[in-house]
Design brief:
It is built from 19 helices and no strands. It is mostly helical and about 240 residues long. The protein starts with a helix and ends with a helix.
């Protein structure tokens, strides 16, 4: 409990060559550390502080283990750090890790830990990665918008996708009879509707509002429906200003 804090502090302040020597001692014990309530913090700190050229052995440990780690209370945090700190042109996310995550998208979005990992793919992945997540979710947008964990992923698809990605989601919602009305009154799905209204472009928003208008009177009777009405009022006042 205390030793892991010392190691984390050392990783913040010592030179790269010493960091490389320090973390080399973990070879063969990476998985054990990741699944430990203290050790996982050290692995996270390594990913944050140590240049990628020294951490290949950590990344290699994940091969064929990604699903089990993504659904683990500590493992999911480590994968999130990898996606954060390897999420740019200079250090893109490891291909094998992303590939395994995408292969398990449907299961992960419904998992209490895995959903956070897929959210990180949407935040830090490439456009191709984001589109691949949405492809896996297509046909299930309505279903997953009502799911406690998966609804968070749908929100992130809307927020971090581009206009094309958002249009795919909007089209699926409005084409399924009754789906939009149910979503606006649902404790989780209403946030997906709000996110669409918040981040989509003006043309998409105006068309989406046209689909909402016939339901305005009934929304007043529902706690979550009122959230949608408040969002519409906010949009209207912003237009006037």
């Amino acid at each position: 409990m205390y030793g892991c804090r010392v190691i984390q502090k050392a990783l913040e302040v010592i030179d790269h060559e010493y960091k490389a020597l320090l973390i080399k001692e973990l070879e063969g014990n990476v998985l054990k550390c990741i699944k430990d309530q203290n050790g996982n913090h050290v692995i996270q700190k390594i990913i944050e502080e140590v240049p990628p050229e020294y951490t290949h052995f950590i990344i290699d440990t994940f091969e064929n283990q990604v699903y089990s780690l993504a659904t683990h209370p500590y493992g999911c945090r480590v994968i999130q750090r990898i996606l954060e700190h390897h999420g740019n042109e200079n250090t893109p996310p490891p291909v094998q890790i992303v590939k395994e995550l995408l292969h398990c998208t449907i299961s992960l979005v419904q998992d209490q830990y895995g959903n956070y990992v897929i959210q990180h793919v949407l935040k830090h992945g490439s456009n191709e990665d984001k589109l691949e997540v949405i492809r896996h979710l297509r046909g299930k947008i309505f279903q997953f918008s009502q799911h406690k964990f998966a609804s968070n992923v749908i929100e992130q698809c809307v927020e971090h996708g581009n206009d094309e990605h958002r249009q795919l989601i909007i089209d699926e919602i409005v084409k399924e009879e009754g789906a939009l009305e149910v979503m606006m009154k649902h404790q989780f799905a209403n946030y997906v509707v709000q996110k669409i209204l918040e981040v989509c472009n003006n043309k998409q928003r105006d068309r989406f509002i046209e689909y909402i208008k016939p339901h305005v009177s009934s929304l007043k009777k529902y706690t979550y429906g009122k959230h949608i009405l408040n969002r519409l009022d906010k949009i209207q006042s912003e237009k006037l200003n």
